[in-house]
Amino acid sequence: MDDELTGQKIIVVGGAGYIGAHVCKAVADKGATPITFDNFSSGHKHAVKWGPFETVDLRDKPATLAAFTKHKDAHAIVHLASSIEVGIGEKDPAGFYENNVVGALNLLEAMRSLSLRNLIFSSTCATYGETDQMPILESQVQNPFSVYGKTKLTIEHMIQSYHKAYGLTYITLRYFNASGADVSGEIGEEHDPETHLIPIALAAAAGLRGRMKIFGTDYDTPDGTCIRDYIHVSDIAAAHLCGLKAFANGLTHSKVNIGTGKGVSNLEILQMIEKVTGKAVPYDNAPRRDGDLTRLYADPKRAKEALGFTAQHSSLKNIIQTAWNFHSKRWNLKNVHGPDDK
Ligand code: UFG
Predict the structure, then answer these.
(1) Taking each helix axis from N to C terminus, what angle separates 61-70 and 103-113, rounded to the nearest 10 degrees?
(2) Is 169 helix (H, G, I), strand (E, B) or coil?
(3) How far is the CA of 289 from the centre of ligand 1 (A)?
């Protein structure tokens, strides 16, 4: 039933970020109120449109408790805030562990002291690490190689311990490659610096940057480039709604992949960009990027069984079209935001 969430208050930690803003919009569309907690270190105030926000940094334990206390009548917490750039994590593990792990511990402690129970946690396919078994099942051994993946797996373990010892109810969503933008074009991917394939390739197609690099063309794949599972950010947001409904229906804990099950190569992305935009992507072949896996795609069955979730918006064409709509609007209107607005 679609009205199950009406009137609920949902705290969205990291609600000003790319995925967080889409979650807030989806929550508001269901008649619930998203309350964004964000420190705006990478999130954007202009992306907070569907409910109130608190400026809070999870590393500050007393401030975190105070913010949660203010909203202690929340029905559920969605926790998306974290450092995400894999390369930066390798150079600054201390910063990553502090922001991601200490921040999550402070969040869990605030929830525990206020008897808040329902947590949806953003995890990642990066927690699996190197594996030859495709598609990836949730039951596979998790052996992350990046600091980023290690912080996320550590948090998964913390959450499991809180479930066992304190009765925390949780759903861990292991996202594959988040992509695309809301169909309205009002929110989308705005990382600084941008490191992801699709926004970089769109900027190159638009002539806003030089030739891009395709990292590695000698992989053991049909066209020699890496394969990923691109899932539309609106589908990721919908998975959160499924999770919130699952709590209402008594689910106590689950860990699920959020992907499509379909692998797409880097060159297939560039081909679809050319098809959708009518512009070729100027690129050069470059050496492999450190830490990249050859192929990574989900087995999405458990998400369907446990949450009733299947991707609806994740055709490659829709992903590229919505991302292109968002970016072209943003590039044309780049001075639309005020000077204090990141
Ligand atoms: N790529 C290029 N050129 C670029 C950027 C990316 O060739 O300029 C390639 C990468 O080498 C990779 C593919 O495009 O083969 C996808 O790279 P992204 O950086 O877009 O995405 P990743 O798969 O590396 O990262 C995603 C998430 C991370 C998460 C990771 C887990 O964005 O947060 O999946 O593997 F950690």
Answers:
(1) 40
(2) strand
(3) 9
Q: What is the pTM of this model?
A: 0.95
Domain around 95: 9-180+230-258
Q: Which residue has the tokens 């499509």?
A: 260
Q: How far is CA 270 from CA 166, 202, 220, in A?
A: 48, 9, 19
The Cα 195–Cα 2 span in angstroms is 36
The alpha carbon of 18 and the centre of ligand 1 are apart by a number of angstroms equal to: 16
Residue with the smallest CA separation from ligand 1 atom 24 is 292
Residue 286 resides in a domain: no
Q: Judge if the beta carbon of residue 209 lies within 6 A of ligand 1.
A: no
pLDDT digits (tens, 9 = 90+) for 50-87: 999 999 999 999 999 999 999 999 999 999 999 998 88
Tell me how far apart the alpha carbons of residues 253 and 255 are, in angstroms, rounded to a whole number.
Answer: 7
Residue 167's CATH number: 3.40.50.720
